[in-house]
Amino acid sequence: MKLFLYGHSFHYEMENLCRLFFHRQKIEVFEDCREFDGPDAALTLVEREGETLHLLVKTAVGAYRGEGRDTVSVETPPQEVERRLAVLLFRQLTEACGICPRWGILTGVRPVKFFRSLVEKHGEDEAVRIFREDYLVTEEKLELSRVTMRNEGALLARSQPDSCSLYVSIPFCPTRCAYCSFVSSTVEKTVKLIPDYVELLCRELEKTAEVVRDCGLRVESVYFGGGTPTAISAEQLALLLDTVNTQFDLSHSREFTVEAGRPDTVTREKLEVLQNSGVTRISINPQTLSDQVLRRIGRRHTTQQTLDAFHLARACGMNNINMDLIAGLPGDTVEGFHATLDGVLALSPESVTVHTLSLKRSDQLFQDGAGEPEGETAAQMLDYAQHRLTEEGYLPYYLYRQSRMVGNLENIGWCLPGCESPYNVYIMDETHTILACGAGAATKVKRPGVDELERIFNFKFPYEYINRFQEVLERKNRVKQCYEQFQGTVCPFS
Ligand code: SF4
After folding, report:
1. Of 419, 397, 416, 154, the residue nearest 280 (C-alpha)
2. Are 64 and 191 in the same domain?
3. Residue 490's pLDDT band (boundaries 50, 70, 90)?
4. Distance 218 CA to ligand 1 centre (A)
5. How far is the CA of 230 from the centre of ligand 1 (A)?
6. I need a labelling partner for 411 at 20 to 30 A (CA). Which of 7, 72, 125, 489 fits?
7. Distance from Cα 475 to the centre of ligand 1, integer Å
8. Do residues 298 and 409 both lie within one domain?
C-alpha cells in the first residue's frame, strides 16, 4: 500500500491508520508528494490559504475512488488537525475495504486511560460524545471503556504517592513460542546461566530493598513475570521468594503473583514452594485448548497438561488462578475459540485474560507469513468472550492495546469481583513507581502528582545482565536520585 503525505507531519498516525486496513502489507510512505497513484494508495494533504488550512484525503483501493475535504483555522492545535485528517482517511478506508475497526481512529495503547482523562476534564457525557463522534469508537467499545474505567478506578484510588510495586523478571522459557517478541531465552540454550542469574538477581533484590527503605516507599504488590518464572527449579524459586520475603516489608502488599505461564513447567514441588512463600496468585496460561493450534504456535505442551496443572494447583491450595487466552491465533476458528473459552470457564479460574494476537517483526510467525485469522474473526472471538465472561460474573478491570494487533483490538483482564491483580492496573495506568529487577526489566519511577515517569533500563539479555552486573546495581541508585529531585530532599516521604 502506498501512502502519500503533503504539508503535514502526521506521518506516524496516518501510517498506523493505513495498517489497520492493510495489516499484512508493507506501507510505503512518500513524503512531500501531492499526487498519488494506485492500485492501493492514499493521499493526505494539508495546505494553507490565508488564515485557513485546507485538508484533503484521496484514496484509490481496487475499484474504489474516494475524496474528502475539511477546513480549519490556522489557529487549530496540530493534534486537532491530525484528528480531522485521520477521520477523513478512516471514513474512506472503511468504505473501500468494507471493514470498520471497532476502536475507530484510536490507535493509542491505553484507551481507558485516555477516556478517564476526558471524563476528568469534560465530564462523562462529553467524554462519551468525544469517543463516539470525534474518534468514531463503536458503542460496544465505548461501553467497555466505561465499565473498565469504573472497575479499575477502585484499585487506582488505593495507590498513594509513596506506593511502589516490585517486578521480578525471569526471562527463561522451556521453548520459544512462534508469536513471542519478548526477551526470552529457552532453558535448553541458557541453562548454564541460570544459577549465576538467580544469585545476582537476589543481590539486585537486596539492593532494591535498600532503595525502598531509603526512599520511604511502601510495597503494594509483587509480581514475578517473564518469560516463565516456573521454568527455573523449585530450589531457585525458593531462594528468590525467600529473598523478597526477608528483604522487603510486605505488610502493605495486596498481591504476590508468580506467573506459572507454561503448564509444562508446573510441578507439585514448585507449587508447594509458591504456596509456602506467601504467593497469593498464579497464572497458568493455556492460550488455546486446541492441541492442533498449540502445535502451530510452537508451544510444546498439550491441553491435557494445562488441565492437569490447573487441578494440581487447586489441590496445592492455590485459590486465585488466572488463565491467559489469545484470540486470533493461526489455525484457530471462531468455533474453536468458543470451545477454548467454555473449557476454561468450566474450570472456574478467578480471572481470565483475553489477549488478541499481536505480530511483531521479530516473531517467527510474522517472518513465516503464517496466516492469522482476519480482524473480523478475532473481533467475533472477543465478542463471544465478552458475552460469556459477563454472563459468568467476570468484570473487565484493565484493558490495553499493543501495536500490530489483529483487527486493532485489545487485551482485557477479566476477574471475579475481589480477585483483581492490582499490579496489572498499576503497570498499565502508570499509577506509581515500579521497581523492576532482572534482565530485560525496566524500572519506572513515578513523579508524585504528575503524569511523568523516569525509566531506568536493565540490560536486555541474561548474559549482559550477568557480565555487567555492577552497572545494574549502580543504576538502582538513580531511583534515589529521582526521589531526591522530586522534592529536593533526601527522602520525600520519611
Ligand atoms: S511463554 Fe511467553 S515469554 Fe515464553 S516464549 Fe512463549 S510467549 Fe514468549
Report:
1. 419
2. no
3. very low
4. 31
5. 12
6. 125
7. 27
8. yes
Tell the residue nearest (CA) to atom 7 of ligand 1.
180
Mean pLDDT of 46-55: 97
What atom in ligand 1 is closest to the CA of residue 186?
A: 5
Residue 459: inside a domain, yes or no? yes
Ligand 1 neighbourhood includes 173 CB (under 6 angstroms): yes
Cα-to-centroid distance, 125 and ligand 1 (Å): 41
Candidates 96, 98, 104; CA nearest to 40 is 96
Is ligand 1 within 6 A of the CB of residue 355? no
Decide which of 154, 172, 189 is a domain's last residue.
Answer: 154
User: Do 187 and 162 share a structural domain?
Assistant: yes
Q: Is the CB of 19 under 6 A from ligand 1?
A: no
DSSP assignment of 382-438, as one string? HHHHHHHHHHTT-EEEEEE--TTBGGG--EEEEE-TT---HHHHHHHHT-SEEEEES
C-alpha cell at 283: 497464572
The domain total for the chain is 3
Which structural domain range is residue 24 located in?
A: 2-97
| Measured distance CA(261)–CA(319) in Å, rounded | 16
Residues 293 and 222 in one domain: yes
Measure the CA–CA gap between 93 and 86, rounded to whole angstroms: 10
Residues 148 and 218 in one domain: no
Q: Are residues 149 and 256 in the same domain?
A: no
Regarding whether 209 and 280 lie in a shared domain, the answer is yes
DSSP state of 131: I
> Any idea what the CATH number is for the domain that residue 10 is in?
3.30.160.100
Is the whole-model pTM more than 0.85?
yes
Residue 43 lies in a domain: yes
pLDDT in tens, 206-224: 999 999 999 999 999 999 9
Average pLDDT, the chain: 92
Q: Please tell me whether residues 37 and 160 are part of one structural domain.
A: no
Q: Which atom of ligand 1 is nearest to the CA of 175?
A: 5
Q: State whether the beta carbon of 104 lies less than 6 angstroms from ligand 1.
A: no
In this structure, is residue 492 part of a structural domain? no
**Is the CB of 440 within 6 Å of ligand 1?**
no
Instruction: List pLDDT tens digits, range 161-201.
Output: 899 999 999 999 988 888 887 766 777 788 899 999 999 99
Least confident segment among 176-185, 382-391, 460-469: 176-185
Residue 102 in any domain: the answer is no
